[in-house]
Design brief:
The chain is mainly beta. The chain contains no helices and five strands. 0% of the residues lie in helices and 55% in strands.
């Protein structure tokens, strides 16, 4: 996964049990298996193989 996403504000859309789900937050870390994002309430791990799309958002992502 791309290291240049770290610190960017993103919206991640992924396949969650055969239906799309999404989260918005700041990317904290990336690896081959997960992206870690900090949302308003908590830090979440999203499995890379289920990600359908990543959209860069405004704000901290400039």
């Amino acid at each position: 996964m791309e290291k240049d996403l770290i610190g960017k504000q993103v919206k991640i859309i992924w396949d969650d049990k055969d239906r799309p789900s999404q989260k918005e937050g700041i990317v904290q870390a990336t690896s081959n298996n997960f992206i870690t994002i900090k949302t308003e309430r908590k830090i979440e791990l999203i499995p890379v193989r289920r990600i359908l799309r990543i959209e860069l958002q405004g704000g901290n992502g400039k």
